[in-house]
Amino acid sequence: MTKGKILVTGGAGYIGSHTAVELLNDGYEVIIIDNLSNSNRFIIDRIQKITGKKVFFHQEDLLNFAKVEQIVSAYNNIKGIIHFAAYKAVGESVEKPVLYYENNIVSLLNVLKVMTLFGIPNLVFSSSCTVYGQPDILPVTEEAPIKKALSPYGNTKQIAEEIIADTVYANKNLFSIALRYFNPIGAHESALIGELPLGIPNNLVPFVTQTAYGLREELKIFGNDYNTPDGTAIRDYIHVVDLAKAHIVALNRMISGNNKESFEIFNIGTGNGNSVMEIVNEFKNATGLDIKCNIVGRREGDIEQVWADTSLANMELGWNAKIPLREMLSSAWNWEKAYRADSKQEKEKYNLNLEHFKNLMALGFSNNGFNAEEINFLVNKAKDVGISVANWDEWMKEVSSFTFQIPQNMDEREEYLADLVHLAMVDGKVHQTEYDMCLKLADKLEIDAENLDKIIKLIEKLWKNDA
Ligand code: UD1
Questions:
Q1: Which residues contact 376 (CB under 8 A, 6 or more apart)?
Q2: Does residue 408 or residue 85 have the better pLDDT?
């Protein structure tokens, strides 16, 4: 017997994946809808690995209402939705406001529409302390006035809270809790899941761990002239697992009918503020590693200091953040190391597997496949990366008469394509000629160009990180 099904949008993301783990541990079944725009499929496997339980995963965009409706209609009796799926980069939102409003608002509207359509009663919404701007009184309570948003991203959170309030007040069968997150950091103790920033991280802790790993030269500290004890800005950093657990108690509260209002809002932080300098020093203490720092000017749109008054969440939800700062930082570091080591192994795996290479060539040989030039290129690349065969001519003859069946399993097909992409890389990039070759195989494997591009991007990133 499970406690019922919960739909988690954005469940492959940073906070979503940690929450999925806690939901499964608490006895719920988890359905995830995620378009993987800022996450990766392997995270789904990791959630299953940590919990030993199955996740029902659908790679879909929440903007596609017809598809979302179709997915949700296949399940009955979903008890609640935790809605994470959203864009979250402040700077990018200033450059691309329409993208942010469309993605963050329309996806919420679609979530509310399926809730009404299928009678799903409970919603936990990912909000942010960004709605307070620079509060006049610290620690900040839920009663503090909402300040004009400093970015379209921040505005989407404010608007979303209003849309949810209007919707639940108009519908007596709907309930919602918005959690206003402070600054989530750290990773699951297994180091199997964690934050996966694309490109150069915007947030402090991923920047610190990447600098410690040697991927970034130095940490730029944005301003030391704030009106704080050491001059650097102060935030309330909370371990992502503590934050994930707050979602479970919020959900349980609504499911058991213990909520006092149809829409409730809680601050989710630790109640402590730490400065940027304190984070850097505590990271050094936690890991024994030094980080090169450089003090630069303030970052536009940053506030000086904020930390949470968490008494409402403590009292009403019976929830408390428990994990200390040092553990937040050591877990972030353990994840960074584990993730980099896995990436490296992954890279090597593609280069070294002869069996895969043979199947790949057989696939490529089949009708309208690779041309002579492409085959030549691939064999040379195979030699370069250390695939050794006693007699290449004979091996090629054998392979050309061998028929390898296209695997049923999409993941396996993607692995073959990823193998080819690895081989197609020249100086860390897939160039046009090689791209055409990859496209041919993608076509045979029935993988669309969009997914091929995603695989290429990922592998190019791996190479860059390992370089
Ligand atoms: C930011 C957003 C917040 C959003 C959150 C989600 C702003 C103003 N706020 O939070 O709305 O919900 O991300 O991702 O952007 N810092 C450095 N050097 C760095 C990176 C950060 O000194 O390389 C400093 C920042 O100036 C800040 C602190 O570290 O004082 C934390 O920064 P960050 O992790 O980006 O979080 P917020 O800015 O609080």
A1: none
A2: 85
Q: Which CATH superfamily is domain 5-198+236-271+305-323 in?
A: NAD(P)-binding Rossmann-like Domain (3.40.50.720)
Q: For CA atoms 457, 458, 461, 462, give the dihedral sign.
A: negative
In tens, the pLDDT along 176-194 reads 999 999 999 999 999 999 9
Residue 24 is predicted with a pLDDT of: 98
Name the residue of 100, 180, 235 whose CB sits within 8 Å of the most ligand 1 atoms, as the mutation to test its pocket: 235
- Range in 65-69, 147-151, 254-258, 372-376 the model is least confident about: 372-376
Rounded Cα gap, residues 447 and 357, in angstroms: 19
Beta bridge partners of 305: 234
333-391 pLDDT per residue, tens: 999 999 988 776 666 656 557 888 888 898 888 777 888 888 888 888 887 777 888 88
Residues 247-283 as b/e (b if ≥16 CB within 10 A, e otherwise) read bbbbbbbbbeeebeebbbbbbbbbbbbbbbbbbbebb
Element (H, E) at 462: helix 449-466
Give residue limits of the domains in the chain.
5-198+236-271+305-323, 353-466
Backbone CA torsion sign across 284, 288, 294, 300: negative
List ligand 1's pocket residues with C-beta within 6 A. Answer: 88, 90, 128, 130, 154, 183, 202-204, 207, 219-222, 233, 235, 276, 299, 301-302
pLDDT at position 186 is: 98
Helix (H, G, I), strand (E, B) or coil at 356: helix
User: What's the chain's Rg over C-alpha atoms?
Assistant: 24
Name the active-site residue from 14, 153, 181, 237: 153
b/e map of 116-138 (b: 16 or more CB within 10 Å)?
eeeebbbbbbbbbbbbbbebeeb
- Mean pLDDT, to the nearest integer, of 68-79? 97
Residue 100 parent element (H or E): helix 97-101
Structure tokens at 93: 């939102």
Q: Check if 153 is active-site.
A: yes
Please report the pLDDT score of residue 10 as a whole number.
98
